[in-house]
Design goal:
There is one protein chain. The protein is α+β, with helices and mostly antiparallel strands and 502 residues long. It folds into three domains: 244 residues, Alpha-Beta Barrel (TIM Barrel); 112 residues, Immunoglobulin-like (Sandwich); 90 residues. Helix content is 16%, strand content 33%. It has eight helices and 29 strands. The strands form seven sheets. Strands 5, 6, 7, 14, 15, 18, 20, 21, 23, 24 and 25 form an eleven-stranded mixed β-sheet that branches. Strands 17-16-19-22 form a four-stranded antiparallel β-sheet, with no helix packed on it. Strand 27 and strand 28 form a beta hairpin. Helix 1 packs parallel to helix 2. It is globular. The N and C termini lie far apart (48 Å).
Length: 502
């Protein structure tokens, strides 16, 4: 049991490789390994939002245990998670112990700083009323003690907002950004997936407000092991906390990760790549995603004219068979590819600039095992107003349209319907779950579950329910939308529903 490191393994030819390990009837396949001759960029993996000792608001996290100790967090990140970089931090520092707590994380960075092997970053989480931010510092050596965690956003921006050596990472939970309360001049790094679930809606909201962030994904880990696999956890969901439900549902704990595409594994190289938005976020699968527009890569800005031809090239190397690939342009789905369950896929799409709406283009990738991945957008600097999107569907149409309620004859999820109904009658208000319909058994990276669809509440909102029946006490996950990439705007939807029903 545990981690086994096999030394001396090398690959002597270029291409895409995967390693397999077998034990009896069990076989596991590694993430893809891309071998190139003298590559200008390499892909480095890590977690940019996770926590350890020093929390004054959550039971057990105030204890400096062998697992939560700051130095132990970095050791786990490298040995268990096989991360190249990581940013474990205190979530809610005790105001009276900020120097002790922050100092321990600074010392842990010094202890584990190994350029070329592992790069630790110093961070802490700020909790202003305008929304939480993970504050990440490029260097750890002389960074002063941060202000109290509850200071208003104006104070956080005053300290860090204009510093290029500090990132205020926008994240999903527990409190996403409230841009109606305070709108910073810039948002440079945005979480599109975390242990709470996927949140492409948050990326779209930021883009539509005029921000131009790079994407990331992170575990938002609390008590678990740093770098652990994605798993269903009963206390990480959102419903019941900010929605009119009686119980909080499950989410996925550890798992989501960020890839930084940089020339080398050094602090300055990684930071420069983040500032250039050369990043990818996934729900946990360490897939390789590439988006190019001419010579520009994901994260770059490109000046285009109305008469230009846009030549886009996409490449994906996955960890499981690919289910679907969407090209998102502005607020629309520009094109969808069926990769036919291949592991390795690439394509080229060439269109006149007049047929590409919006001011950004990014790639959304779905694996058959339920894992998701996103590139940072390529930002389109247009000399005129973007063209109208004639006949193109919305970026989230496949999750919010009318096609999700069709029951299949003899659906395999139907055997779990009575158990689900019993749960909803006991724990929720079942009359709000309209047209409850089985939608198959899903074999996901986190386990097998029965999927159901319904129309929720008086608004008849599309909702997907996942019933993880393999646990002794089944676990449940709710997602608004027919698919779980974060299709509906939680910041707006949650308060509206709470006001209506509570």
């Amino acid at each position: 049991a545990g981690v086994k490191v096999i030394e001396g393994v090398s690959l002597t030819s270029t291409g895409v490789f995967r390693l397999q390990a077998s034990c009896g009837t069990l076989t596991s396949t590694s993430n893809p390994i891309l071998v190139e001759s003298a590559p200008s960029m390499r892909q480095y993996w890590g977690d940019v939002h996770a926590h350890g000792w020093g929390d004054s608001t959550m039971h057990l996290m105030h204890l400096r245990s062998d697992r939560l100790d700051p130095a132990a967090r970095h050791a786990q990140a490298r040995r268990l998670g096989r991360f190249d970089f990581c940013c474990p931090a205190s979530m809610s520092m005790d105001p009276a112990r900020r120097e002790e707590t922050f100092g321990a994380y600074r010392d842990a960075c010094a202890q584990h700083d190994e350029p070329g092997r592992y790069v630790p970053f110093l961070a802490y989480e700020a909790h202003p009323k305008a929304g939480d931010r993970q504050v990440i510092f490029r260097d750890y050596r002389e960074e002063p003690i941060p202000p109290p965690m509850r200071d208003p956003m104006e104070r956080v921006i005053e300290c860090y907002g204009e510093r290029d050596d500090v990132l205020l990472q926008v994240h999903i939970g527990g409190d996403p950004p409230h841009w109606d309360i305070h709108r910073p001049a810039r948002e440079r790094f945005l979480e599109v997936c975390s242990g709470f679930g996927c949140a492409e809606w948050l990326l779209q909201e930021a883009l539509q407000l005029g921000y131009e962030p790079g994407v990331c994904a992170a575990s938002d880990l609390h008590l678990g092991w740093m770098g652990g696999p994605r798993s269903v956890e009963t206390f990480r969901g959102r419903f019941g906390q900010k929605y009119p439900m009686r119980q909080r549902d499950s989410a996925y704990g550890t798992g989501p990760v960020t890839a930084i595409q940089a020339p080398e594994l050094t602090r300055d190289s990684l930071w420069t790549a983040i500032e250039a938005r050369h990043t990818v976020g996934t729900s946990g699968a360490r897939m390789i995603l590439a988006l190019h527009l001419g010579n520009a890569q994901a994260g770059d800005s490109v000046a285009i004219g109305a008469r230009d031809q846009l030549d886009m090239h996409f490449r994906v190397h996955a960890c499981a068979p690919l289910a679907r690939i969407d090209v998102i342009a502005g607020v629309h789905r520009l094109h969808t590819y069926d990769p036919q369950e291949r592991l390795d896929w690439e394509a080229t799409l060439s269109l006149p600039a007049t047929e590409v709406p919006g001011r950004w283009v990014y790639l959304r990738v779905e694996q058959a095992d339920g894992e998701w991945g996103w590139t940072s957008p390529i930002y389109l600097e247009r000399d005129k107003i973007p063209p109208a999107a004639e006949g193109l569907p919305a970026w989230n149409d496949c999750a919010c349209g009318e096609s999700g309620e069709v029951a299949l004859e003899g659906d395999s999820a139907a055997v779990h319907l009575a158990e689900l109904r019993s749960y909803l009658e006991r724990e929720e208000q079942i009359d709000r779950f309209n047209d409850l319909t089985p939608a198959g058994i899903l074999h996901l990276a986190v386990g097998n579950c029965a999927q159901f669809r319904c129309r929720w509440g008086e608004q008849r909102l599309p909702m997907t329910i996942r019933w993880f029946f393999e646990f002794e006490i089944p676990k449940i996950r709710f997602d608004f939308g027919w698919r779980d990439y974060g299709a509906m705007p939680e910041n707006q939807l949650g308060p509206e529903l709470m006001t209506r029903y509570e």
